[in-house]
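Q: Two folds, back to back.
A: First:
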Amino acid sequence: MFIRIVKLQIASEYIKDFEMLFEKYKNDIRNQEGCSKLDLLKDKNNEGVFFTYSIWDKESSLEKYRNSELFEIVWGTTKKFFSGKPEAWSVDRLVEL
């Protein structure tokens, strides 16, 4: 299992555009080979801060998606909405209750 968390800072004037973009492509992303979970989270105190949380069967599945035409479309558009540099973490689950 491979877990990826990405923090995105979206400019206030593009929040709705970003949410619509995610809504449009969420099923396509989630249905990528090896993806078993995809969540979009929003910070409670900063409306422009979002996180994606995704679970992949292995790192190579995520890399395959990151090299796909779909990723180019989604990430290429999302980059235009940034108000800050994105941050990403690859994490291991140690405990699940």
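A: Second:
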Amino acid sequence: MEYAKWPERIVNWQVKQLRSKSIPMVKVEWKEHYGTDTTWEKEKEMRLRYPHLFPNEGKISLEDQTS
């Protein structure tokens, strides 16, 4: 049996620097059946799947800064 995880909020932002590119990452707090968990996820993918986590008020995407 598997329980669904739902993103609760963005906890932190960072840019993962690889040799030839930068990847904007967000630390997401997930609400699970038994509590909460946090994981680092790609900002671009999280924006596509869960746009409600990214209010446009005063927040600038790290992706915009690294392009």
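Q: And?
A: The helical segments are 43-49, 62-66.
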